[in-house]
Amino acid sequence: MIAVAARKYRDYGECRGAFERMCGDVGELTGAVHHTSEGSGWVWRLRDPGGGAVAVSSRAYERHSTCQAAYDRFRALLADLGSGGVIPWGDGG
Protein backbone atom coordinates (compact mmCIF):
# COMPACT_ATOMS: atom_id res chain seq x y z
CA MET A 1 0.00 0.00 0.00
CA ILE A 2 1.38 3.37 -1.01
CA ALA A 3 -1.09 5.84 0.43
CA VAL A 4 -4.51 6.17 2.00
CA ALA A 5 -7.26 8.69 1.46
CA ALA A 6 -7.28 11.49 3.99
CA ARG A 7 -11.04 11.91 3.58
CA LYS A 8 -14.00 9.61 3.93
CA TYR A 9 -16.14 8.81 0.92
CA ARG A 10 -19.72 7.56 0.82
CA ASP A 11 -19.01 4.84 -1.70
CA TYR A 12 -16.53 3.37 -4.15
CA GLY A 13 -17.62 5.62 -7.01
CA GLU A 14 -17.09 8.79 -5.01
CA CYS A 15 -13.64 7.60 -3.90
CA ARG A 16 -12.67 6.56 -7.42
CA GLY A 17 -13.75 9.93 -8.82
CA ALA A 18 -11.71 11.75 -6.19
CA PHE A 19 -8.64 9.66 -7.08
CA GLU A 20 -9.07 10.41 -10.77
CA ARG A 21 -9.32 14.14 -10.03
CA MET A 22 -6.25 13.92 -7.81
CA CYS A 23 -4.28 12.33 -10.67
CA GLY A 24 -5.35 15.06 -13.07
CA ASP A 25 -4.73 17.88 -10.60
CA VAL A 26 -1.41 16.65 -9.16
CA GLY A 27 0.40 19.77 -10.39
CA GLU A 28 -1.85 21.93 -8.21
CA LEU A 29 -1.42 19.81 -5.08
CA THR A 30 1.14 20.58 -2.41
CA GLY A 31 2.59 18.31 0.18
CA ALA A 32 5.41 17.69 2.55
CA VAL A 33 7.03 15.30 4.98
CA HIS A 34 6.23 15.82 8.67
CA HIS A 35 7.01 14.22 12.00
CA THR A 36 4.32 11.83 13.18
CA SER A 37 2.02 13.20 15.87
CA GLU A 38 3.93 11.05 18.35
CA GLY A 39 7.23 12.43 17.03
CA SER A 40 8.69 8.96 16.50
CA GLY A 41 8.85 8.89 12.72
CA TRP A 42 7.95 10.60 9.49
CA VAL A 43 4.78 10.73 7.38
CA TRP A 44 3.82 12.66 4.27
CA ARG A 45 0.61 14.48 3.38
CA LEU A 46 -0.67 15.66 0.01
CA ARG A 47 -2.94 18.72 0.17
CA ASP A 48 -5.43 20.34 -2.18
CA PRO A 49 -5.15 24.06 -3.07
CA GLY A 50 -7.34 24.91 -0.06
CA GLY A 51 -4.92 23.17 2.30
CA GLY A 52 -7.07 20.11 3.01
CA ALA A 53 -5.30 16.76 3.10
CA VAL A 54 -6.33 14.45 0.26
CA ALA A 55 -3.82 11.61 0.72
CA VAL A 56 -1.40 10.54 3.42
CA SER A 57 1.35 7.98 3.69
CA SER A 58 0.08 4.55 4.59
CA ARG A 59 2.67 4.19 7.32
CA ALA A 60 5.31 6.06 9.28
CA TYR A 61 8.93 5.90 8.18
CA GLU A 62 11.99 5.84 10.43
CA ARG A 63 14.00 8.13 8.17
CA HIS A 64 13.08 11.45 6.65
CA SER A 65 14.87 10.55 3.40
CA THR A 66 12.90 7.31 3.00
CA CYS A 67 9.62 9.11 3.62
CA GLN A 68 10.57 11.85 1.15
CA ALA A 69 11.41 9.23 -1.48
CA ALA A 70 8.03 7.52 -0.95
CA TYR A 71 6.26 10.88 -1.27
CA ASP A 72 8.14 11.68 -4.48
CA ARG A 73 7.27 8.25 -5.93
CA PHE A 74 3.58 8.74 -5.10
CA ARG A 75 3.51 12.13 -6.81
CA ALA A 76 5.26 10.65 -9.86
CA LEU A 77 2.71 7.82 -9.96
CA LEU A 78 -0.18 10.30 -9.85
CA ALA A 79 1.39 12.38 -12.62
CA ASP A 80 1.97 9.28 -14.75
CA LEU A 81 -1.59 8.07 -14.28
CA GLY A 82 -3.02 11.53 -14.86
CA SER A 83 -1.04 12.16 -18.04
CA GLY A 84 -2.74 9.31 -19.87
CA GLY A 85 -6.21 10.80 -19.52
CA VAL A 86 -7.69 7.43 -18.54
CA ILE A 87 -6.66 5.48 -15.47
CA PRO A 88 -6.30 1.77 -16.28
CA TRP A 89 -8.57 0.39 -13.55
CA GLY A 90 -8.63 -3.06 -15.11
CA ASP A 91 -12.34 -3.49 -14.41
CA GLY A 92 -13.70 -1.97 -17.58
CA GLY A 93 -15.03 1.04 -15.65
From TrEMBL:
SUPFAM superfamilies tied to this protein: YegP-like
Protein name per its UniProtKB record: DUF1508 domain-containing protein
